[in-house]
Amino acid sequence: MSIRTAQHRVLSTLNLDGTRRWIRPTLAPGRHWSRRRLVGWLLIAVFVTLPRMTVGGRQAVLFDLARREFTLFGATLYATDTLLLLLFLIALFLGIFLLTALYGRVWCGWGCPQTVYLEFVFRPLERLIEGKARQQEALDQQLVPWRRLVKWLAFLVISFTLSNVFLAYFVPVDTVLQWASRPPTEHPQGFAVVAVVTALMMVDFAWFREQMCVVACPYARLQSVLVDRQSLLVAYDAGRGEPRGKLRKAEELSLGTAPARGDCVDCDACVRTCPTGLDIRDGFQLECIACAQCADACDAVMAKVHKPAGLIRYTSQAELERTGQARPRLAALRTRTVLYPTAICVVAGVLAWAIASRGTAEVTLLRGVGAPFTVQSSGEIHNLAKLRIDNHSGADRQYHLDVEGAADLRLVAPQNPWPVARGGTKTQNVFIVAPAGAIHGKRKVHVRVRDGATYDVVHSFTLLGPN
31-35, 55-59, 437-441, 449-453: lowest mean pLDDT where? Predict the structure, then answer.
């Protein structure tokens, strides 16, 4: 059986015969690299320290799945706050759309955790232990590559540490610290989460790597519909660089026998430094994460051959097609860059208003299922109501139920006062009992619900009876 070989590379991480092509990029220090490294380390510092920060006496960010509470910088959302959660997600996605429309895939190269940790934690550690790209390739041929074993052990320690930090976003940080000092048998669920996340990090950063950006991440596919001709991208200026060619000898240049060439010297430095294995000179590609490593590498080469920098740079497709303009000039006011901010302001305004006007409890009073009313042998008229209370106060509460302004009516409930835990939801059936002849068709009453602290609201309810 013969194996067919592709004529052209399908993915940057695959060889022509379909085998894995390991990407071992050469580091290209430069101005973009220095700025990205600063941003990356700041993001890492924020990720590590944020669980230890408090706002209003609570952990700044905590997604407590057990209690179904989501705390974001002092504001606590509950599982019942579906509208608020929906508005928050809509605002988040609109922000991503706006960022992409303006700056292309800059999030992937500058802020994505996959890129930040791979490029500024794991790969630097790999170069420190295994050496440069050729030394790493030599380890592939060794039967027992002890340097690689040391690297994997270091990766495991870092992954385990980051997994505990990750857990602190879903479990209070004090609880995580207690678990870390006790045997795993006392907290098997928490230990299982840390073990699974550690294993996933090891698989990702030690093996899967850039394939997450090239194959798995859907953002690259969405980018094709989110960007336009004015979006900022990392691109090669073909008008200036082509036709490319190697540098000619001085005597050829002096005799005028060297053919006309563009500024690109065809050194492939941009290819060797690309973390996803692309050749930026092939045009705009979805796999590009806009990290500008190719731009730093090219600028260094241009400086050596005494040519101006910027052959590869941040620019836009529309800018490259213009003549006589070397620097990017983005058209900030475009249809999508006006609609996205407007929509973000509207959604954010509604979200802020909804959070500010939200009470400490959400009470729903509905008619019970079944007969609208029943008449007892004594003549009393019973109306069944279904009461639901969502406690948003941040503390356990006791809710008292009363019928206001109707001395002849009484409310019968399984529990009164009614305890509801912090962030909890409870539903119970209550009866409003009226004496014989007190209701003729319909009668509106008011049910008062109060917790003795922050919630005291009167809710209307319509009683039904015989005509």
Answer: 55-59
Helix (H) or strand (E) holding 412: strand 410-412
User: Using CA atoms in the order 213, 215, 218, 219, what is the torsion angle rounded to 10 degrees?
Assistant: 30
β strands within 245-355, DSSP E:
312-315
Q: Which residues are CB-contacts of 402 (< 8 A; sequence separation ≥ 6)?
A: 411, 447, 448
Among 249, 272, 271, CA closest to 261 = 249
Residue 296 near residue 28, CB atoms below 8 Å? yes
pLDDT digits over 293-307, tens only? 999 999 999 999 999
Q: Which CATH number fits domain 361-464: 3.40.50.1820, 1.10.3720.10, 2.60.40.10, 3.40.47.10?
A: 2.60.40.10
Q: How confident is the model at residue 324 (pLDDT cuts 50, 70, 90)?
A: very low
**Domain residue spans of the chain:** 31-218, 361-464
Give the span between the Cα atoms of 424 and 66, in whole angstroms. 11
User: What are the pLDDT digits (tens) for 386-400?
Assistant: 999 988 887 889 999
Q: How far apart are the first and last CA of the chain?
A: 88
Contact 76, 69 (CB under 8 A): yes
**CA–CA separation, 166 and 162 (whole Å):** 6
* Average pLDDT of the segment spanning 217-241: 87
pLDDT in tens, 84-124: 888 989 999 999 889 888 888 889 999 999 999 999 999 99
pLDDT classification of 29: cutoffs 50, 70, 90: very high
Q: What does the alpha-carbon distance between residue 11 and residue 17 come to, in Å, rounded to a whole number?
A: 11
Burial string for 6-18 (b: 16+ CB within 10 Å, else e) reads eeeeeebbbeeee
Token representation of residue 205: 């950063």
CA atoms within 13 A on the CB side of 392: 21
Sign of the Cα pseudo-torsion (320, 324, 330, 332, in order): negative
Q: How confident is the prediction for the chain on average, in pLDDT?
A: 87
CB atoms within 10 A of CB 207: 10
* Count of beta carbons in the 10 Å neighbourhood of residue 286: 15
Longest dimension (CA), the chain: 121
Interval 374-397 mean pLDDT: 90
